[in-house]
Amino acid sequence: MNVIQLGPLVLNLELLIFILSAFTGYLALKYRLKKAMVTVEGNISDKFVNGLILGFVIWKCSLILFDPMSVIEYPMSLIYFSGGDRGLGLAIVISVIYLWIRTRKDGTDIMLNLDVLLVGWMASSSMYHLLLLVLHKENVLYHVLYIGLNIVLALYFYTRKVEVGDSSVLSRVMIWYSLVMIGISFIEKGRTLFVFGFTMEQIFCVFVFILFLWIDNAMDKQKGKESL
Hints:
Shape: globular
Distance between the termini: 63 Å
Number of strands: 4
Helix content: over 70%
Number of domains: 1
Mean pLDDT: 84
Number of helices: 9
Structural class: mainly alpha
Order of helices and strands: EEHHHHHHHHEEH
């Protein structure tokens, strides 16, 4: 159990890393939203914050589902432990469903939402890997490449002044981003395999790659029809 003790106060290190990473992602999300319509900023920012909180609660409480005996014997385990990779997967699925329903309800553009989500993810995941690198000093190459990829992508968005929700740029960025992430994940030491020698994160990236490859092809076909 990784904890930090400050006098009588005991802090869960895993929870502290999550909070700092989530706050960094939220700041990046808000900054990106300044380039979008002001009328939808509140809806989108609140929506992602609620989705994040929902995912976190499910991730922590999924321990009840996957290891109920440990919770019954030691209820405080809900504070210090989580549902692990399976709980994280469940949290992601439910959070995505929630965000999809909210997006359909508020009528905001899907690509705009994906754009904002990508920027928030890049910032939060970079902070997460930076903290792991500083605190544990393990998997150095993996963490450095992960952070480096996000920095390159962030510089691309900033220097090219990519418009928020630009579907043509976003689809191609996601295709290459997911491919590179699959490759980088092979460098991680002690990774937990999920299926066919791939981790859960790699399987998710494969799904993202296929989805945006389909979206990109569909947009190219649509443009071809409009040019006729």
